[in-house]
Amino acid sequence: MRTLSVDLPGREYKIYIDSGLLGCCADILAAHVSGKKAAVISDSNVAPLYAERLEKQLAEAGAKPFRIVVEAGENSKSLGVFEQVLSEIMEHDFSRSDCVVALGGGVVGDLAGFVASTLLRGVKLIQVPTTLLSQVDSSVGGKTAVNLAVGKNLVGTFYQPSAVLIDMDTLSTLPEREVACGMAEIIKYAAIRDAKMADELLSGNFDLADIIARCCAIKAAVVLNDERDTGERMLLNFGHTIGHAIENFYGYGTYSHGAAVAMGMCIMTEYAEKNGLTEPGTLDIIRRLNEKFGLPTVCEHRDQLITAASHDKKRTGDYISIVLVRRMGEGYYKKVHKSELEIIAKGE
């Protein structure tokens, strides 16, 4: 088993990575849930596959689990579903000493995290991510959120979990589209912090468990330096400003989050190379990585993405922080006027 520590001021938690973890995690869970109620929040795809197995481990750990299932898909990251989940949990006479367990991908993790951070002003949260994207990215770092009609992740909190349990075996049930979605986030980490990872991915000679652990370690290190997303943590949004705009413009579900981010990385790097802000050839590497893992490199209707992109959370007044890479493995952020987004989106 690989174990990583996320050490934050006044708060520490561990990330556990192993195959078969869902069937033997009672000892890990016991320290967090013994004698408590555990609200297992999952979705309609994941719950039938893994909820019973996890609930058995929670019971062995001394908890009293109960299950709440939302519809699979981005539409469940809404204020309406958030309220429904809160109400359903409270029907179980939930208290501040009890625990929320997020079992699923990024949507479930973000929704359940927001629930845990706000219910009774904060209850314990355990993340059990079941998609590649959530394992390498969204389950680590403490961001929680739901969407609004005008944009993604605009209502949320910073709220760290008490533990993250990553069972590699859950990846075996993922459709190819979801695996590709996670690979986009892995490519992001290679671009901003780990050029060697990019070489390994292109060669095909890599160990996925090792890649997941390295991505988690990168994110943990960045979050340690900037938990509240005011500086260095912005690097983790490479490709996301345009990516979120693509998701919003096309309607969530047309493109996966990973596909949108993949296009966003290409668009930002194309702009940066044209303006001498990125080493020539970087765009070609990112495009080849996307193509290798079945991700798009070109987006239609680019000039219509401006409105959604302007609602990005990194905007301060008339300026917005965008993330670029000087070369593979070296990400940085740059503040530009919001009018520059039009140039970026149109590829001018």
Describe the structure.
The structure is a single chain. Helix content is 43%, strand content 23%. The chain is an alpha/beta fold and 348 residues long. A seven-stranded mixed β-sheet has the order 1-2-9-6-5-3-4, with helices on both faces. Strands 10-11-12 form a three-stranded antiparallel β-sheet. Strands 7-8 form a two-stranded antiparallel sheet. A hairpin with a 2-residue loop joins β7 and β8 (151-158). α1 crosses α2 (47-60) and α6 runs parallel beside α10 (257-274). The protein is globular and about 60 Å long. The model has no long low-confidence stretch (mean pLDDT 93).
Strand order of the largest sheet: 1-2-9-6-5-3-4
Fraction of residues in H or I helices? 40-55%
Task: Count the E strands.
Answer: 12
Please trace the helix and strand order, writing H or E for each element.
EEHEHEHEHEHEEEHHHHHHHEEEH
Strand content: 15-25%
Biggest beta sheet summary: 7 strands, mixed
Radius of gyration: 19 Å
Classification by helices and strands:
alpha/beta
Q: What spatial form do the alpha-carbon principal axes imply?
A: globular
Total helical segments:
13
How would you state the average pLDDT, rounded? 93
Compute the separation of the termini in Å. 49 Å
- Low-confidence parts: none
Blueprint of the fold:
Elements: E1 2-8, E2 11-18, H1 26-33, E3 37-43, H2 47-60, E4 64-70, H3 79-90, E5 99-104, H4 106-118, E6 124-129, H5 132-138, E7 143-148, E8 151-158, E9 163-167, H6 176-193, H7 195-203, H8 208-225, H9 240-250, H10 257-274, H11 282-292, H12 306-309, E10 315-316, E11 319-327, E12 330-337, H13 340-346
Parallel strand pairs: 2-9, 3-4, 3-5, 5-6, 6-9
Antiparallel strand pairs: 1-2, 7-8, 10-11, 11-12
Helix pairs in contact: 1-2, 5-6, 5-8, 6-7, 6-8, 6-10, 9-10, 10-11
